[in-house]
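Hi there. Long-time user, first ticket. I'm pasting a complex I've been working with (about 577 residues overall). I'd like to know whether the download I got is complete or cut off, because the file seemed smaller than I expected. Thanks.
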Amino acid sequence: MFLALKEIKHYKLRYGLIVTMIVLISYLIFILTSLAVGLSTQNTKAIDSWKPQRIVLNKDSNINISRSVITKEQGKNLKINPKQDAYVGNAPVVSSAKDRSRVSAQFVGLDPHQYIYQNLKLTSGHKAQKNHQVVVDTQFQQNGYHLGDKIKLNSDNHSYEIVGFTKNAKLSIAPVVYGSMDDWRQLHNLTSDFLCSAVISKNADYKAHNSDLHAYSAKKVIDELPGYQAQNSIFTFMIAFLMIISLIVIAVFLYILTMQKLENYAVLRAQGIPAGVLVRATLFQTFILVISGIVIGVVLTLLTTMALGNSVPVACDPLIMSTTVIGLLVTSMLGALIPSIMILKVDPADAIGG
Amino acid sequence: MDAIKLTNVSKSFGQADNRFQVLDNINFTSKRGEVNIITGPSGSGKSTLLTIMGALRDPDEGTVLLENEKVANLSAKARDQFRLNQIGFILQAHTLVPYLTVRDQFVLVDKVRPEGNMSAAELQNLTDRLGVSRVVDHFPNELSGGQSQRVAIIRGIYTKPNIILADEPTASLDEQRVTEVCQLLSDLAKKENKTVVVVTHDERVNQYADHIYELVDGHLSEK
Ligand SMILES: Nc1ncnc2c1ncn2[C@@H]1O[C@H](COP(=O)(O)OP(=O)(O)OP(=O)(O)O)[C@@H](O)[C@H]1O
Ligand SMILES: [Mg+2]
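Hi, the file is complete. Here it is re-exported in full:
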């Protein structure tokens, strides 16, 4: 520790540059991660808030809620315990109103007797009490909509009144408009023969009891959301690539620094200083540099997330963030292996003879 | 007891056609309290002989006994330990850690070897004696050649080793300092019963020697 700290203190510029590089790389990785998490949760926030285990969809829907419709006939054997099972009727809509910007949204019809409606948490206003009343995601507020606004959904002639706002209602990166099942049928041009798009159940053993339907696991349905997995794998790829870059950058830096020190290390080894002391100094040094780089990177990321606010969907998930931190630490310690091997290979006899 | 005993030591470098015999059947002994000087032309193998006396290299043939310890029998770890405790090197090359002040060079040794090193008072005495006490807070690149040479000498004997091996210790010193350094090495042998081996071309050192050897074409002979 003594050697490691003294050296960093002596070569401030040199090590400052390394830390700066680690800061930049980790900052980039963290921002990308936050963006990935942010976008990913925007796909699923609404579904997540329903805490589903199983989701019953029409088998023809290609495991896609918005493309699934279930008729009353198909659903007649479904057992609904309103405390844990609920119908949802989903349809993509475009909302418009006088003097307001258009918003692409996801309409979700609910049954007022079932748990999703009952558990809906509002930030303002009240729940929809009759047809043509809707509760919408707070993103509408940011887009200038207010309580009491009359909005048009698609080309439906009827207007809908915003009676409440709710947070975290996002589906496929669009804000959710919660309304009634009747409104869903109307927006979808369906007759009253149709029951819903999907049944959401908190029961992991929920059964569809119909050969046209299937109770998919919630994870499966989320994974099949359009673009969801592609988006996630692109981000994962970018982050993994950045990790590899950071590994190489750190390894190269440490390699060059260690090269310059080998002559002196030979002398120290000749004098009987064990190789372990020198290797530990290098590892410890790497650790300090990387940790300080990462800490600064994290702080910058938090500041950036705060500054960006709601304009960009960034989210710092503590678990994913700490996984990334550990990933960075591991890769840089791997980078420190090369200089460690170099040190172990130093021949102390080289110290003599000049 | 012999502090250093080399018996029939041979060493060559390279392989096959490039094989080059540096040391040829060398016998050398030194008792505690003796100052030995080894001279010889450049490239004659003096430094190589020092690496063998310092447990840094093994000979191809022959045996090396240091403080009655058969060096060939020591594990790599034990060798590190043996050098740390028993051998003091005073070397040709720049031997100080560039990012440690003079004072910290010794703190480093204390960290690795907490006991048996010079006390603060002893160190102070020695830096006074060699005229480097004013630069203890300087980094090596802030020292003159002679100053760093003298600091390296103190570093070499800071662990109070029984065997002191020096490669051209007086190279960058003026007349006055040569005398001081030689007197110091002589005192270490005579007053503290250490064994000193000095490789040097510097004739001024000869008067302090108990034995003077010459290494020519791999053969060692006492003058
Ligand atoms: N590691 C090595 N590999 C191959 N040859 C070596 C090695 N070390 C030394 N030699 C060769 O061994 C010979 C003796 O080298 P050594 O350094 O012992 O000489 P020296 O007497 O100390 O010379 P100088 O007075 O110039 O310091 C030289 O010819 C040198 O080229
Ligand atoms: Mg030499």
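A couple of notes from our side: The first strand of chain A starts at residue 54 and ends at 58. Residues A 353; B 13, 22, 40, 42-48 surround adenosine-5'-triphosphate (ligand 1) (CB under 6 Å).
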